[in-house]
Amino acid sequence: MDFSFSAEDEAFRARARGWLADRLADGRPFADLRTPQGFTADRRRAWERELGAGGWIGPDWPGRDGADGAGPAGAGPDGAAVAADRAGSDRSADPLSRRIVWAEEYARAAAPAPLGIVGEHLLAPTLLRHGTEAQRARFLPGIAAGTEIWCQGYSEPGAGSDLAAVRTAAVPTEDGSGWLITGQKTWTSLSQWADWCFVLARTEPGSQRHRGLSLLLLPMDQPGRIDVRPIRQLDGDSEFSEVFFDAARADAAHVLGGLGNGWRVAMDLLSFERGVGMLGRQIGYARELDAVLAAAAGSGAAEDPVLRERLTRQWAELHVMRCNALRTLGTAEPGTAAVAKLVWAGWHQRLGELAVQTLGPDGALVGGLAHDPADYPLLPVQHRMLFARADTVYGGSDQIQRNIIAERVLGLPREQRAAAS
User: Fold this and answer.
1) Do β-strands 150-153 and 196-202 pair in parallel, antiparallel, or remain unpaired?
2) Are 279 and 250 members of one domain?
3) Buried b / exposed e across 328-341, counting CB within 10 Å, b at 16+?
4) Which of 94, 45, 53 is nearest to 77 (CA)?
5) Per the database record, which ranges form the Acyl-CoA dehydrogenase/oxidase C-terminal domain (predicted)?
6) Which residues lie below 8 Å from residue 358, measured CB to CB, with a gap of 6+?
7) Which of 102, 81, 80 has the alpha carbon at shortest distance from 93?
8) Same domain, yes or no, for 301 and 371?
9) Which has more pLDDT, 258 or 269?
10) CA-CA distances (angstroms) from residue 244 to 183, 192, 199, 417?
11) Which of 7, 206, 229, 274 is deepest in the core (most CB within 10 A)?
12) Nearest CA-CA partner of 104 in 393, 346, 325
């Protein structure tokens, strides 16, 4: 297969690389985001708005270059300039290729994790596929401008990877103008900073499993009705939270994909999570692997033939993952997303373990004995290793991915599940 990019794609790549360097290089406006001190919620919000003003959020959305007028325009003068540039030079470029290029350059620049990732990469493509015209008009511009941050209300206690077991319920308001949502979600990424949440809830009383579910869009600013409680992680951060809903209100017009169609919409949304973004993720993985190789060479750990073989295997597997991701882009083959998730999660987890092992005995120390243990000063490789423990759980655990492959691709008998209590 031809994995090369067109001249238009490479021209887009040059613009993306130049824009990122202008904002993130030492001494530039957002260079502080590469430091722990600068990586604050306020600065991350400012960066999201900067991406929006430049027209870089959703560069592959329909109409982003003015070709068909179906999507939001880039916000601000910078976005207008980018749109004009695109119209003149790469109108014929494949939008999917453009998204791949942007994801790769973003990762190559070591740009900060965007606050708007859930809105841009999960909700927006789902709106484009399942949303009404009014829903797209209401929500896409805020995502594109970086002014509205989203979180995902899927997992619950007792309904993590088994998403069909959700119990959060929604009942219609007395006047029929909206829905009142009651229940609990957990492991909700970025929820303490989010403006909106899309929530998978039961809108049909007494329904079970995949039936009677709907995906509702609701504002997070509902004091007394929504309670967000950050969860402290092993690495000391709190990117995840528990979210409690007590008759939180969603507008009747904000049911995405139609009433009772929540399972189908939710599964489509998860397929977006494991698509093009994986290619950008792999650029970041390559940088992490290079750092581990350099550390192994510097410490002498690379002289160990067993460790050297494991590092070589990591390198080869990363290249295979990239080729497979490119090969399967845009396909609707069942199980494709499950295979990709299963492969990269285990790979990244093993890399984290290798990274710490290359440090030798120092890898077991947390910042040295001179520090107050309450400071929890982790080395970057220790931070990545601990966070990677979740890779094989979030977004669907390894066990769930294997079940999907076995049942939906290989046609093996379905796993016996205990009856709902």
Assistant:
1) parallel
2) no
3) bbeeeeebbbbbbb
4) 53
5) 260-410
6) 292, 295, 296, 299, 301, 302, 307
7) 102
8) yes
9) 258
10) 6, 12, 12, 28
11) 274
12) 325
User: What mean pLDDT comes out for the span 318-342?
Assistant: 76
Structure token digits, residue 300: 């002498």
DSSP assigned state of 407? I
Sequence-distant (≥ 6) Cβ neighbours of residue 421 within 8 angstroms: none
Looking at the structure of the chain, the number of domains it has is 3
Is 175's pLDDT higher than 50? Answer: yes
CA angle 149–151–156, rounded 5-degree value: 165
Q: For residue 47, which of 121, 145, 139, 150 has the smallest C-alpha distance?
A: 145
123 occurs within a structural domain: no
User: Could you tell me what percent of the chain has a pLDDT over 90?
Assistant: 29
Give dist(CA 30, CA 324) in Å, integer. 34
Could you tell me the CATH number of the domain that includes residue 225? 2.40.110.10
**Does 57 share its domain with 79?**
yes
Quick check: 184 pLDDT over 50? yes
Q: CA–CA separation, 328 vs 313, rounded Å?
A: 22
Q: Per DSSP, what are the bridge partners of residue 202? A: 169, 213
Better pLDDT: 168 or 99: 168
Residue 368: which pLDDT band, with cuts at 50, 70 and 90? very low
| CATH number of the domain to which 345 belongs | 1.20.140.10
Enclosing H/E stretch for 288 = helix 277-299
For residue 394, which of 332, 349, 333, 331 has the smallest C-alpha distance?
349
Kindly list the catalytic residues: 273
Residue 416 counted as domain residue: no
| 281 shares its domain with 377 | yes
Q: Does 325 or 212 have the greater pLDDT score?
A: 212
Q: What is the pLDDT of residues 211-232, one digit of tens each?
A: 889 999 999 999 989 999 888 7
Residue 67 pLDDT more than 50? no
418 within some domain: no
pLDDT at 50: 94
Residue 292 pLDDT > 80: yes
> Is the domain of 295 the same as that of 386?
yes
Domain's final residue, options 69, 88, 114: 114
